[in-house]
Amino acid sequence: MNIEKSVELFNKAKSLIPGGVNSPVRAFKSVGGNPVFFEKGEGSKLIDVNGNRYIDYIGSWGPHLFGHNPPFIKEALEEQLEKGVSFGAPTELEVKMAEIITRLVPSVEMVRMVNSGTEATMSAVRTARGFTGREKFIKFEGCYHGHADYFLIKAGSGALTLGVPTSPGVTNGNAADTLLADFNDIESVKRLIQANKGEISSVIIEPVAGNMGVVPASKDFLQQLRNICDEEEIILIFDEVMSGFRVAAGGAQELYGIKPDLTTFGKIIGGGLPVGAFGGKMEIMEKVAPAGPVYQAGTLSGNPLAMAAGYAALKHIEENKEEIYSSLEVKSAKLEQGLNENLKSLGRNFQINRVGSMLSLFFTENKVFDFKTAVSSDTELFGKYYRAMLERGIYLAPAQFEAVFVSTVHSDEDIDYTIKAAFEALKEIL
Ligand SMILES: *Cc1c(COP(=O)(O)O)cnc(C)c1O
């Protein structure tokens, strides 16, 4: 595949942008090779600057549940474009957006729109601190909650693949309030709570972790977490920036039937534009300014273009719920089964974790249920697999500890072709 123009652009970009990219994992550092520069997205396909076509399984890292440029989002954007792109004042769209979020996710009684997932998680933790008057919080090893200082302690996603899970620039003071527990291990949570009695404001978790690869929490674990948080008056935060509107219309909390106190959103909620949100119980959200004293603000928060795209996406979900999630399940199950058959016929027992349209293939024969088991994956082998798939026109996330996202517009041919490509790729590298 000729990617000459991408090579040229990347060389130029490296002298102008740190690492040549505006978000680390895009740089292909953990898989090797030159990042591909894209010009266009069409449904399930991406077209690069040399005109090569790829079946895309990143979907802009999660937002594109309906593939690239779905007509109903494009139309909503065009309509808003005529009226103006930003007013810095309230609009009807923001009210409609809040209404639809609270309808789709009943634990969210009140919601604040922000501009990214990072802002959402940061503000949720601040709100929990303000509400409880306590400073410490618990996060889980391998979970990623954006790049606020106190989350960059053993974080997942790019922080994990680049080998700097704890970033320089994070102060000891910041790190001291972050308590680390093991995913799917309730005893590790109990120990921390015992040792910090009455000092913990919140527990934040990705109920379906997607940033150490896909690693679902067990229902029993989440239920016990819910119970402990109730007993200790700790705010339970579900970070559903990735799983929200992805694993079900009501997110992972609908799937598991467990209600958090606060939830954070991003990705799908913006229909491809930069949007995040946090919300939850009325009594907690009423602490947020200007209703309450916990400060939180944003010049472009609730931006009309972003709200138009996000609202169009959520409206589409609300109106086509059954069809969307059952078709995602069928397509994704087919992909999983095909990959499993590939592995079996090559005599390998590598692990595939999948929840709905989120999937990861780990290059390990161990069951993957937490951070330690996730990192037992052979990342060098993943790098080879990645490059072999890219060469065959399959665009996966360029790192082991990410998810494959299937969209509603991936066709049967797309999935069949992907399974076939994966067989050839695996045969070549094993
Ligand atoms: C992507 C992600 C974030 C960060 O969102 P940004 O929009 O990249 O700031 C936070 N939490 C989870 C679970 C995510 O997947």
Overview of this structure, please?
This protein has 2 domains: about 5-70 and about 320-430, Alpha-Beta Complex (Aspartate Aminotransferase, domain 1); about 70-315, Type I PLP-dependent aspartate aminotransferase-like (Major domain) (Aspartate Aminotransferase, domain 2, 3-Layer(aba) Sandwich), CATH 3.40.640.10. About 40% of the residues lie in helices and about 15% in strands. The protein has 14 helices and 16 strands. The strands form 4 sheets. Strands 4-12-11-10-7-5-6 form a 7-stranded mixed beta sheet, with helices on both faces. Strands 1-2-3-15 form a 4-stranded mixed beta sheet. The protein has a 3-stranded antiparallel beta sheet with strand order 13-14-16, covered by helices on one side. A hairpin with a 4-residue loop joins β2 (about 45-50) and β3. α2 (about 70-85) packs antiparallel against α11. The longest helix has about 40 residues, at about 305-345. The two termini are about 20 Å apart. Bound molecules: pyridoxal-5'-phosphate. Pyridoxal-5'-phosphate binds near residues 118 and 121. Pyridoxal-5'-phosphate (PLP) binds near residues 118, 146, 242 and 266.
Keywords:
single chain; 430 residues; alpha/beta; Aspartate Aminotransferase, domain 1; Aspartate Aminotransferase, domain 2; 2 domains; four-stranded mixed β-sheet; globular; binds pyridoxal-5'-phosphate
